[in-house]
């Protein structure tokens, strides 16, 4: 009775098998999950902000300027990274080792160079959001020796930006995984 | 026993009415109408997928931009569903609404969203080629 499981390419001895996830299903679920993670990050920060307004016992309050700026930077970076056209990006990244594209002859077109610069700016904004949230946590809450409840607002800021960074990475990976699949469909 | 479309419609509308009843009770029992936001979020939650799907299929089949538009719709759907779940939680977490109101509006919102999703799945006619 085990022959049929041996002949089929099941990884287990027991008669169950993993559901076969096609690439498009994986991609769809990944994009949903990315959106959910983005929302989670946003609402973590909103929760901290509401806490600061309604229940806060200390005199350290969340303001727009230091506390929401890392989120703004992260969202800007996410928009920039995910609006780059993937086909142009592949061409730009495979066209040489030089960081600014083209090579010694300078034959790289201006668009490849600008795509690399824009991509760099996007990742820099994303990383700037995370490091900005850490610096807000240190400078505004830890240096002021805030107690645990107040400190949680700064920690929520870091968690929010990390969530949005992971969400951006997942969205980016899911959009790039599609390439082989569409190729096989086109055949 | 074969489930007729009439049975489906009647049962789905009953569930939808129950969801609305739970949300409105969660607002009215505590004299705080903030949980009503959940209804709005869960009603517009299926919209991005529907709009982006019709937008993408109006173009050529397997165009490069199609997948981007579909992804945008899915991303917004994920964001809106998480919004509907987390708005009551953070409102209750900061003592703006009562805990019981949070549970009632959460379950009511999920019922409303599940009704909309099941309705579109039941009566979705696959297009003929």
Please explain how this structure is put together:
Chain B: InterPro entries: Vps55/LEPROT (IPR007262). Chain B: It is a multi-pass membrane protein. The complex is a heterodimer of chains A (about 190) and B (about 130). Chain A has about 190 residues and is mainly α. Chain A has one domain (about 25-50, about 65-95, about 110-180). Chain A has six helices and no strands. The longest helix of chain A is centred in the C-terminal third of the chain and has 39 residues, at about 150-185. Chain B has about 130 residues and is mainly alpha-helical. Chain B has one domain (about 5-125). Helix content of chain B is about 75%, strand content about 0%. Chain B is built from five helices and no strands. Chain B has helices at about 5-30, 35-45, 45-55, 65-95, 100-120. The radius of gyration of chain B is 18 Å and the shape is flat. The interface between A and B is medium-sized, with 25 and 23 residues.
Amount of beta strand of chain A: under 5%
Secondary structure tally, helices of chain A: 6
In angstroms, what is the radius of gyration of chain A? 23 Å
Gyration radius from CA atoms of chain B, angstroms = 18 Å
Overall shape of chain A = flat
Briefly note the structural class of the backbone of chain B.
mainly alpha
Along the chain, the helix and strand elements of chain B come as HHHHH
- Ends of chain B: how far apart? 32 Å
Low-confidence stretches of chain B: none
- Separation of termini of chain A? 38 Å
- What is the residue-mean pLDDT of chain A, rounded to a whole number? 80
Report the oligomer: heterodimer
Q: How much of the polypeptide of chain B forms β-strand, as a percent range?
A: under 5%
Number of domains of chain B: 1
What is the number of domains of chain A?
1
Count of individual beta strands of chain A: 0
- Extended strand count of chain B: 0
Q: Percent of residues of chain A in helical segments?
A: over 70%
**Which pair of chains has the greatest number of interface residues, and how are they split between the two chains?**
A-B, 25 and 23 residues
Structural class of chain A: mainly alpha
The whole-number mean of residue pLDDT values of chain B reads 85
Subcellular location (chain A): Membrane
Pfam family, one (chain A): UPF0220
Membrane topology (chain A): Multi-pass membrane protein
Keywords (chain A): Membrane, Transmembrane, Transmembrane helix
